[in-house]
């Protein structure tokens, strides 16, 4: 018996995931969103649930969850929902675009999402619940932590390491062998040429430190 698939969220990120899953010919049982602002065309024909109990009624071994909540700096909803459903015994499904390029020698964790045009090279390891967004490049032997968001067009050269809860913004570039701590935010277009300590915010082409993050 095939597992039921439920998507959490009905925003733009969820729409992209549903589109990819549809292209992969996977049937979505329902979308969960307590307050959908409007129904996107990509959700046409898919039931929308406003009560998560309808998901929890299903057996954990017969259900897969797709995390359709987007990842933005300062927002923890995506991680909270991932933790909540995982603790209840549910598994999160990977979403992999047919238009991405992923080496057979890369390793992807639970719930990892890889969008159109992304490239993940040999030896790379991607932590659970991480998004590798449209056109992002993860070069050889990079180790990406859990709950990361590598935004569209970002490039990580070889052997970059990131901690958990890292956001690397659109078009940012990280040179080889860089180590990035936990809860770091790297702004769009930044060029990172040195290691970054945990909880720092980096912005601008010269990757200047803006402030120390205080939320934990």
Q: Please give the radius of gyration in angstroms.
A: 17 Å
Low-confidence stretches: none
> Strand portion, in percent?
25-35%
| Strand line-up in the sheet with most strands | 6-9-12-15-18-21-23-24
Helical residue percent band:
10-25%
**Mean of residue pLDDT values:** 93
Distance between the termini: 42 Å
Second-tier CATH architecture of the largest domain: 3 Solenoid
Described by the principal axes of the CA atoms, the overall outline is globular
| Helix/strand structural class | alpha/beta
CATH topology of the largest domain: UDP N-Acetylglucosamine Acyltransferase, domain 1
What does this entry show, briefly?
The chain has 216 residues and is α/β, with parallel strands linked by helices. 12% of the residues lie in helices and 28% in strands.
Describe the overall structure:
This protein is of the alpha/beta class and 216 residues long. The chain contains 3 helices and 24 strands. The strands form 5 sheets. An 8-stranded mixed sheet has the order 6-9-12-15-18-21-23-24, covered by helices on one side. A 6-stranded parallel sheet has the order 7-10-13-16-19-22, with no helix packed on it. The chain has a 5-stranded parallel sheet with strand order 3-2-1-4-5, with helices on both faces. A hairpin with a 4-residue loop joins strand 23 and strand 24. The longest helix has 12 residues. 38% of the residues are buried.
């Amino acid at each position: 018996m095939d597992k039921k698939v439920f998507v959490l969220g009905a925003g733009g990120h969820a729409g992209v995931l549903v589109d990819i899953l549809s292209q992969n010919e996977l049937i979505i049982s329902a979308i969960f969103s307590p307050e959908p602002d409007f129904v996107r065309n990509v959700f046409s024909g898919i039931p929308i649930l406003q009560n998560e109990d309808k998901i929890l009624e299903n057996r954990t071994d017969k259900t897969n969850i797709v995390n359709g909540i987007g990842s933005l700096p300062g927002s923890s909803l995506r991680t909270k929902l991932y933790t909540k459903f995982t603790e209840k015994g549910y598994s999160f499904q990977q979403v992999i675009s047919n238009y991405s390029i992923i080496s057979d020698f890369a390793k992807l964790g639970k719930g990892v999402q890889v969008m159109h045009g992304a490239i993940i090279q040999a030896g790379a390891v991607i932590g659970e619940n991480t998004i590798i967004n449209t056109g992002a490049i993860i070069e050889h032997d990079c180790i990406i932590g859990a709950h990361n968001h590598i935004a569209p067009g970002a490039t990580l050269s070889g052997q970059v390491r990131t901690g958990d809860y890292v956001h690397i913004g659109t078009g940012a570039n990280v040179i080889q062998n860089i180590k990035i701590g936990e809860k770091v935010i790297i702004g769009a277009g930044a060029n990172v040429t040195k290691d970054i300590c945990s909880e720092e915010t980096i912005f601008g082409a010269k990757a200047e430190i803006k402030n120390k993050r205080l939320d934990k």
